[in-house]
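Note to self: user wants both folds in one dump. Writing first protein now.
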Amino acid sequence: METYPLRSLTLEEAMELQFRVIDSITREFEGSQSLSRGDLGLSRETGKPVSTGKAEKVIARIFDADGCMLVRGAGSGAIRLGLHAMLQCGDKLLVHRAPVYNTTATTLSMLGLVPVEADFNDTREIERVLKEERDIKGALVQYTRQKPDDCYGMEQVVRTIKGTRDIPVLTDDNYAVMKEKKTGVQCGADLSCFSSFKLLGPEGVGIIIGRRDYIDRLIKENYSGGMQVQGHEAMDVLHGLAYAPVALAIQARVGEECARRLKAGEVPGVQNAFLANAQSKVLLVEFREEIAQAVLGEAQKLGAAPSPVGAESKYELVPMFYRISGTFRQADPSLERRMIRINPMRAGADTVIRIIKEAMERVRADVSASDG
């Protein structure tokens, strides 16, 4: 299998992004304010906590966006609100021809949007579909891969769409923001949406960045006190953004080391190993035998996490060993029997490889015992 993982920031690039986050905070908060837990409730001037408004300005500055809004519902909620701001019920929406992420499919159904598919790996097909389907009113582009052979670049896809039709583009930046050099908005999209929980921030808070008119519409509609992201939550979003770039760059470096060592034959019985964005950038390990499920069971006993909390949240420290993503399973159901997905999280390569090796040894021992 050939995959086309997104290029991760180097450690040096991640450090520069961290410095940009801190510089942006100093431009909006006084020193004593940045050490506080923020305020609660609605200010008369902004209709939201003052510290939440300041945090939104910081985030817009970090990502070169006209505006930012912190919302309820994590990344999925941000996408839902972003599409609502751009489109009306019954509108046609250009999407990639690939399995759609479950919560995104639910959003399209809830909003009454009609998906029209084009292969985003082929710019000529994007152009053709947009010219033939003149009533397409917007586009949704997922930054990370939806199927194993996806190889499109965000900037090229957005440029192709915008160059063919003047329609709004929303990008799903989950698992890509602060790993890639540019957000979807920095690639030319109108809105980018992602979860703070995947960036070491608080649970349930989503981030929308982009065009001021769409952001203002959402702010106007989300006026009640109970819908506001409170000051302490906004401050926690900034805390996460400060630490996420370097942590994610180290995580990417560990994944690359694991792939190299496994490809070199360090663990007998591993047929192949490679990196893929499915949905987060992970290590895919393919075994010579159909032992994937048994290995996952043993890996948990050896200290590996069996499933995500928030997929790269602040709670996930140990490496995560779990089944390949639903979109990859749909693309090739047979992969589930011989392949697993590993996210190193905060672990080093030695720990990841040790757990793979010991888990495989336990599976073989169990098979030998049952045969005997």
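First done. Writing the second protein, which came from a different request thread.
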Amino acid sequence: MHIENRYYIRPGVIEVEQVHSSMVGNHNSRSERDSPTVEAVKKINTKRVVKKLRRLIDANFVPGDIFLNLTYKKGTSITLDQVYRDLENFKDRLKRRYKKRGQPLKWIAVVGIDAPHIHIIINKIDNFDYMTEVPWKQGFIKMEPLYIEEGRYIKLAEYMVNHKAENEKKLGIELKDRKAYRSSRNLKHPRMKRVIINEKTIIRKPKVPTGYHLDVNTDVEEGVSKDTGHHYRYFMLIKSERKKE
């Protein structure tokens, strides 16, 4: 059995996943009775999307950037497609206003059909009056500053990704053609590095490189996955601040 070390690298953060490798060895070693159920696969996929979104937020936004909640006037009857169209119109108008200031707009968004609304993360720029210049006229605007929570945006990512399942439940259909979130094309993606190691070589404690420390707000996860039946370990490394002389 081989383990794949996956390093997700972004400024000041290295996430390490040690998981069963699909690149080496027998990929069909598990019996049919051990194969994950449809629900288990869906759970695995959702968890993967949450991690991807959390890393994307962490790589592109900083504390003080903005989390917007755009709602509609009470009693508004609207389709999911129309909410998506309103999202497109909103971000296009906001992009033009950022461009006039010589700044790019970075964004990540989800929509909800139950009490129709849009959640969108945007980068904050100087000399922009967000109380009056955010181009949303369909209802109300709530603004919150981003902050680094435990797990570095894990709760925010889970909240946003869950909107797809909530929309499916509300509409009674599976939205296979809809992604869990939408984002601008100018976002940076964390660099991912893979290293194959033998499972026997995994040390008991995570190896921490010089200049980093284990994130005290993120538990080291390790064991045998109930979903896949394979060994795994996960931990996060944070770059240590230099002591002032």
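Dump finished. Worth passing along: The first helix runs from residue 38 to 60.
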